[in-house]
Every structure is written in C-alpha cells, then in structure tokens.
Design goal:
The complex is a heterodimer of chains A (148) and B (1074). By secondary structure, chain A is mainly α. Helix content of chain A is 78%, strand content 0%. Chain A has 6 helices and no strands. The two termini of chain A are 19 Å apart. The relative contact order of chain A is 0.22. In chain B, strand 3, helix 4 and strand 4 form a beta-alpha-beta unit. Chain B has 1074 residues and is an alpha/beta fold. Chain B has a 6-stranded mixed beta sheet with strand order 2-7-6-5-3-4, sandwiched between helices. In chain B, strands 22-23-24-26-29 form a 5-stranded parallel beta sheet. In chain B, strands 9-25-27-28 form a 4-stranded mixed beta sheet, with no helix packed on it. Chain B has 29 helices and 30 strands. The chains are: A mainly alpha (148), B alpha/beta (1074). At the A-B interface, helix 3, helix 4 and helix 5 of A face helix 1 and helix 11 of B.
Amino acid sequence: MTFLKKLTIGSYVLIFAAILAVIGFIVGLISGSSLEFPIGEMPIIVALTILSILLIGGAIFVSVKYGDKILVSVILIAAVVLLGMCFYYMFLSKNVLMGGIWFSDLDKGYKVAEDALYYGVVSMVFYLLAAFAVGAGAFFRLDKKKSQ
Amino acid sequence: MFKKLTLYRGLSCVFTVLLIVMILAGNMLERNSVMVDQALGTKSYVTITKNEGDLFTSFTPDEDFLTEDGKLSPAGYTKAHTDLIMQNAREGFVLLKNTGNTLPLKENGKITVFGRRSYSTVTNSLTAAGFTINNLVAAAYGSGAINGVAALPSLMNPPVARNKTYQKYNAHEGPGDWVTKRVAGGESAALASFVDFPDAAIVTLGRNGAEGPDYEASSNGVPADSGARNPMGLFDSERSIVKLACDNFSKVIVIINAVNMMELGELKDNPKVGAILWIGTPAGGSNAIGEIIKGTVNPSGGLYSTYARNALSAPALKNMGSFYFKNWMDFGEGIPNPGTQGTAWGKFMRGPNYPGEANGGGVGQYGELPFVNVADKKGGRVDTGNPNTNGTDAGLETYLMEAENIYVGYRYYETRYFDCVNGDAGAKSATGKYDSTSGWNYDQEMAYGFGFGLSYTTFDFTMGTPTFEKSLHEVIAKVPVTVKNTGSVAGKTSVQIYGQSPYTAYDKTNLVEKSSIQLLNFQKTKLLAPNETENFIIDVDLQDIASYDYKTAKTYIMDVNDNYYFAVGNGAHDALNNILALQGKTKAANGMTYDGKAAAAKKWSYTHPTSSSAVVDTFTFSYAKTGVRITNQTPSSHYDYYEPGVVKELSRQDWSGTYPKTYANLTLTANQKLMDHYNGEYIDIKTTDSADAVTWEANNGLTLGHMKGARFDDNRWPDLLDQLSIKEAIQGVIRGGRGFANMPTVGFPMGSYSENGPGTPVLLDSNKPAEDQAPWKISSNTGVSGGTMPAASVLASTFNPDISKEWGRVAGNDSIFAEKPILWMPGANTHRHAFNGRMFLYYSEDPVLTGVHVMETAVAALEKGAIISAKHLAFNDQEQHRFGVGAFMTEQRAREIELRAFQIPFESNKYDTAEKDVGMLGVMMGFNKLGGVEMTVHEGVLTNIMRNEWGFNGYCVSDLKDDLDLMRQGSMAGMTGWDWRLDTDDIIPYQGVELWTGDKDLMIAMKESIKRDLYTFANSNFMNSVNTTSYAVWNMTWWRQIYIAGIVICSVIVLASAAMYLVSLMLQRQNGGI
C-alpha cells in the first residue's frame, strides 16, 4: 500500500503501457493460433515482451525505491526499444499474409488467413501504443518524493 | 531543471519508437520497390539513355490508335476495343433453338423480361436495340422488400469451400410467384402487364464462375428441395419462371448466361420455349444480345463445349474433386490435422525451417509445423505458397485419376454414338447411361453437341477431294470446302473441318484410343448473301489426327490404310453423321440420330514414302518440326508408372468394362518413387561445386540494347550472359513475375513488365522522366476506355480465327501504351467437364479450337512486340486442390488433348517462314502436378517437349508463389522465372548465394533461363525504351525521401535528446541537484 502511494502519474502511464503490451501479446498469440498461419518469430516476441514488461516494472520499482535516476531512464529507453522490436517482429511475421491478402488474391476472403492477419495488425498497434505509452511516461518523474 | 530531464528522456523514447517505425518502413519499401513503384507510379531505378535517337522505334502503335500528330487517340483506342468486343459477341453467341421463327422478334416490340440475370445486362441491350421493357416486372427485380416479399439473396459463386467441404449451390432465382407478388399491384397487375407487353417473354438463366472454387458434381451440391439434380441442372425456381413465361406468352426465349455447361435438355424439349440463345459471359459485348434478338445481327456461333442433358454423364466426373492418398501422413504434409497437432505452446515456440535442413526434401516456411505432429510424419514437403488458400488446401497429397482417357467432351459422346451405330463393343450398354431410358442412347444423353449453332438462314456444305503436301516429317492436307447460303437472309457460318481416324486391330492391341471424330481446323465465312457461295481450301496438319502410341511405338503413329475421313458440318455430331452417311449408314437401318450428307465428307488414304510398315507409320510423325525425335516424356503421368494395373482407363474396345470407376483412398506406400515425387524430390542439386565453376562478371562490353531483335542462336548471347554476377543471376532467375530484377551488368533495369490480360489498363505513366517518354504518351487518360472482352468461350464459339488475331493486335497496342511487354493471357487449358469454377477463363473442351485461337492472338500480339503468355500449362483441370493435385493420365491423353492446345500456339506452324520461326514466346505454368511431378519441375514437359519438340525459347513463369521451395529444381527443368509479389519472409531464404552455387549444372541452367528471358525482352516492345547506351540508376523517389528524412530526423532528435539529457544531468549535479 505504501508502495502504491509512492506511484506518480508517470508510473501509472507506464503500468498502462505494460497493460497495452500484454494485450498486444495476447492478441498476437491469437493471431498465431491458427493451424495454417503460425508465427515463426513468436519465441522472440515472447522473450521481448516479457523482458520489456520486466523492464517497465523494474523502472517503476527502482524509481520508487531509489529515486528517478539515470538508470531508470536507461531502462525506459531499453523498454521502448524492446517494444518497438516486438512491433517489428510482429510486422515481419505477418508480411507473408499481407502479401496474400492486401497485395494479391491468394488469401483474400479466407477467414482463417484474414483473422491471422488482422489480429496481428491489432497486436502491432498495441505494441506500438505500448512503446509510445512508455515514451509518454518518460515525460513524467517517476518518484513522488523527489518531485514534490 | 528536472522537468528538462524528463522532457529529453521522453523525447528520446518517443523518437526511438518513430525511428524503429521508419527503419521498418524503409526496409519494407526497399525490399518491395518494384511493387511499390507499380502501386505508386514511382521509379526506384530509372533507365538513362545517352543516345535517344533510336528509342521508341522498335514497335509503334497502329495508326487507328493515334491522332494525326502521333499521340494516343482516346477515341481511336476506345473504338478499336469496342469493335473487337462487339464482333466477338456478335459472332460468339450461339443460337441453340429457334422453332416457329421465334427469333428474330419484330422491331420495337414490347417485351417482358424474367430472371435476375436479365437485369440489367440483357434489358439494357434490348432497350438499346429499340425494344420496350415491361417496367412493372423490371421493378419487381429491384432491391429491398416489395409487397412484403423479400429481395433475392446475392448471386452465388461456385461454392467449394476452402476446407474441402462443398457448400450447396443455390441458384437464388425468384420463382414465378415471387415475381408476380413483387409487382406493384400484385398478381393481377402483373398479369395485366403481360398483356401490355405481349411480344415475347425473355428468361435469363445462368451460372457464375470464379477463380478458386468448383461446383460439386453430384446431387449433394444443391439443396435437397431445389429440384435440381446437380448444380448444372435447372432449379425449380428457374423452371417456375420459365413456366410463368410459357403460360402467358406466345413467344418465349431463354438466354443462357453461363460458361459452365448447364443442363438444357428440358428447355430443348419444351415446345413452348421457342428459342434458346447462349451468351456465355458477354461482358462488354452484351449489346449483341439485343442485336441478335432484333435480327440486325444473324447469329453464327457454334458451341465451344458439349452440353449434355445430364452434366454428370461425362466419364471424367467419376474422378473429380477431393481425393487424398489414404496414407498421406506418411510422406508429406499440407493438411491441418487437429488430431495430431502438437500443443499450442509448442506450435508457437517452433520456428520456420529453411532450405538446407535435413527434412526429406524441399521445405518451406512452415517446415514441419503446424500441420502434423513431427512424430507422425516421415517425409516433408510444404509448398511455400500458403497451403490453405483460395478454396483449397495445398492439395499436395491429392490426386486426380483422369481415367476417362482421351474421351473428354464430344470425343466421348460422339465416339460412343459411332460405336452404337456400328454395334460395337458395348456402346449401347447401360454402363455410363444417365438420362437414357434403357441402354446408352445418344439422343437421350445429349442436348446440344460441340460446334453446333443455328442461324436465321441455312447453309449447305460440300467437301471436295483433299490433296496432300508431304515432306519428311510433315503432311499438310488441303481440304476444299464450298459453303452456300441456302436461306433467305444474309449470314455467316463457321467451317469446321473434322477428321476420323480408323480404329484398328493395332490400336486395340496397343491401347491406342481413337475418337470417332475430332476437330482439325476451322474458318469462318464472310457475310454470305442468299444463294451466295464461298470456297475454302483449309489446311489440316495431319499431326493433329495422328495418334500418340505411348505403349509400343512411344511416338505418334498413322495407320497406313484408306479408312480416313474428313468431314464438314454444323458441329461434331453433324460432321460424324456425314461420315456415317458416306460409310453407308442411315437412320432407318442403323439407328442414327438423323441421316447425314455424304457429300459433306471425304474418304482418303494415308501413305507416306518413308513409312517402312504397311500397317502403321511410326516414322513420319515421330519427329518434331524442330527435328527432335518425339518419344515418351511423361511416363510418370500414368499411374502405372508407380503402381501398374491399379487404374484402368476408358477404352472404346470395351465401353462397359472400362467405363471409369472412382479411384478413392489409394495408398501410396507401395512405391517409394511416388512418395519421393510427392515430397518434391525430382532433380538432385549438387553442393560440391562453387561459383567459379562457370564464368561470371566478364567484361565483354555488351548490353541488352545490343541484342535488339537478336535471334535465339545469336553467338553474342554467351558473352552477354558471362557479364552477369552470380547475385544478379540469382535475382534474375527467382524474380520473373510482376517484378524483374535489376541486372546492370547486362543493361537490364528492374521493373514491372507483366500484366494480366485481357483488359490491360492504359498506363499513361506520366511520372516517368521526360527523356523516357514515349512520343505517343498523353497526359490524361480521360476518355480512354478498353472495355472487357467476353469470356474465352465466347471467343471460341465464334470459330473465327480473325477475331483472335484482332484481339492480339489490340492487346499488342495496349502493351505498347502500357509499357507492359508481357501479357499473362489467355487461358489455354481445356474443359474437362461442366463443374470447373474457372472454365470461363478457358476456351473449350477441344485443343484445336483452343490452340488456333491462342496462336492467332499470340502471333498478332508479337507483331506489336507483346509477349502473350498463355496459362496455365497444363492440366489445371479443377480448382479444388489446384495448388498441388496430381493429375494422372496416359501420355496419349496428355499430348492429344491438353498439351495440343499449347503446342499449336508454341509452334505456330501456320506463320513459320524459311527466315523466321514464329511462335508464342511466353507461358505461365499451372500450380498442379502432372502425375507425381509438379508442373514447374517437369523436365519432360518444360524442356523435352516445350523447348526441344515445340521449339519454345521464351519466358516461362510460375503461377503466383507456386513451388518456391523447388525453384532450383525448376530452373534445372526449364523454368525461367517465378512470380511472387512481395519480398516476404518465405522468399528470403531462397535468395542465398550458397544455395545456387553448389551445382555447376544449376548455374548453367540459370544462365539459360536468363538468356530466354532476355531473348524474349529483346524481341518485345520492351526494347522501345532501351538501346546500347541505356543503363539503370538508383532514383530518389518521394517515398525514399520521406523514410530517409524520417530516419535522419528521428536519429538526430534521439541523439540530441540523449545528449541534452546527459548535459542537463551533469549541470544538475554541478548545481547540487540529484
């Protein structure tokens, strides 16, 4: 409870970013759940997502515990990069389907393929929003004590 | 101060995200720059030409496409297309029935029109022809509920679903009471309106076509309460509106708006239906409907394929649809199998496999997953084209036993009829009967036969004595025919030359099958006035009547005897009856459908001085026009190659005993060869050589510009090809679809040089640099309209080669304006039965009718430097499982039916001269297999038949994303390029240099492929914009400016923000802050 009281607006924005990343991850899992169109890059995306969420959590923890120091800024930059890479890999994993649906008729109208693509697009959007949300959180101080 | 720190931190974070997005965008745009250029009208490489003196002189548009000052004339362009389309429709629509002078209708008549397909194509056409339409009924076909009666559901396409389960097809036609209830004022008002519009009732019925799906060929393909016995049969709703028309009008005309051969027997037999007009899919030619109904155009078309009374009666339909090898799990993959699927987590955690992994053959993006559990499978090929696409799964483990043999379409019905008349071989047995009341009976099985068509006048045909021009390996018969208009109005008609080859003891012993009648060539008369005659001498290449003996002679044979026949007639059945008449057969004595006319047929003898046998000539036609010996090249097309004796093909020596059965659930494990083939193991690719095994990067001072118009045997080609780098060669081979690779060492600029046809858009391409502007370019395409050609079957039904020639001319001009030298058109596959969803793309069930039309188009287009690339070679006999289904057949069937349709345009013997070997210079391969071998890897077809026998030296591309895992084998077999649109992750693995340099033969084959592509371009209108001083340079397009600027700006801001953060931090510390 004491910990929660120490959270700032920036902390909440970062928590929101982590939630967006989790949503992106879950939607990404759904997009790769069809038998025909799995996501080959999923192991990387899984690792990057977990790491980025840990980093976000770490940034909040460090700033509450030790203050918003340069380490927190490094962690936030790293989280942004990792979430950006999640977006990047999710995009790469869907480029075959983009070719098959948006740039040819190969998979156009095939619900399984279109679901796999569009869930992937939604996942990408959430990852991108998560990255921007971390960026937004970075505009705020993350330690209440020092900001007062 | 701390506020600044967070500001800089925030800016760093936000612009880091934007930087990642920009890098991704740049990566994607560069990888797909050809497609981006095509979509956005940019040029990421531009061709610079130092000396422009000879540009745009190789091929120029025809005068009727240009204004007086040499610019594209919108009016001229539009007129050329419109005239072509209308002539196609006017001569291609087929009048099937016209009793009691139902047609033509009187001018300015008042007509009531029924059937959803009438609106608005037919009604607009009738209105344009001066008829007045019953608008009260027309309004009933409007949208939304009327009088509480709902509108009709949307029209259905052919209904095979992607998951291999057919949906049921529903015609969704409004029955009679649906129409009358939706008329404003109700049924009484409807009936009153019929009185006000009494001159005729026109009912339009039809079926749709679409790429991907098929119709299900059984009663399961329609709802149980539909009243139809299969999707080609009439639905009760359709019968209902015909009945409404028949009950209320003295003249009833039914228009058939379908390429799939519907069952028209009951309409033929219905005495109240006065006329039936087949229009196929008329597209831009629909106004010809009104012209024919009015009588200003006299119909002259003949049917492109056979209309049986029961569409299921084609023996091919015993083996159509979805057939999996029972043990497919043992040797391949491609089909989702939830029962053996690994855990979801395992599925996510496993990555793709790439070439080089030991996986029992070629592998693709999906590797061993996700389709089957690794433990459950032993082999492993997955096509990199998405396996579950377009109405089918990959079909890699499916097959199709084409046990009907050569007896496709009219070849079956007419041959069986001939044997019925002659009392032979169980032809009259009940086996294979569908609508016959007792034994098989032609009249009871057939509605309208191949080539049949009526006119508003009548014609009389007589045939003179043929003469023969013989050379060592060629015999051309000159067949004289006289046509006389014996009716009272002017008209045209087709002159269809048929032949009959004797069915001999040798044939029976060696399983050589003979159709009792086959089309050999055709022509069209001019518009003949009443009593006017026209004389023809029509060439027949006897190769088209020679038979392929795949078992014994293993080449084409001719019987040395005097029992050959030529005949002319109104379709195949009429011609056959004329032959029967010459053979002394009559309706009364022999049960013919009607008495033929002996004067329309001629008996002739075949002998050849080089024949060493007095029985069978196995020499004359055993050599191709190229001088290459013709022998078996597709042994694995026959299932006997893998498992002898399992499949029995239809033979006319025992109609009853050999009538095809359905070959379902075959097991593959018996034969390792078949398993290997289905696993994609055809040609070994060595890994022991290196790139320096062949010459690369030589400096010979040549460019493609030097090769303008060069012959294929020009001795400069090797020097030019030696200039290539290995990386250029790889890109040159694997890109051959919409995007061609940059090959600067030979002066070939990357770009998109191909387009689907017909309907090629006019690409004015005003974004091109000024120095690259063709003199005929205009700045706006306002008023330029190409229109859309009717379906290929309408063109086939014209039986007029000149229309196809005109199509080639028009398409060639399109190609020049669009700067698209390669046109992926037309479809040259043959119709196997009535249920293929895509048969609108293909001409006919007959290979000569198809081949001659394609040849005329290809040669005429070539005159304008356009490369007609017919598709889909070959045996794309159904849409279901088309991505990999193996079509099994005898080599006789393969060569005499499907391959002949391609052979004729490739050889184009009609246009060959001593100076120039003319022929179609492009082709697109089918997705499917022939036997166990993918068409893209079929060396027997690609190299031994196409290149060596037919003399094909041109461009040969895969269908979209087909067999990318087999690109190296395909290049060895004879492919020149592969079509894929985006440089996606499933393509990248195959671009590695090491994959291509381990085999010297592969590298030689790559050079050969590029030579053929460059030869094609060198003889096309591509050379309009290239000369010896041309070279390609990287170009800063606007999208490059955006992403590069974005990367630079984002990088600067990220770095600056980070720097400012650190500076602020230091200042803060100096000031005693944190």
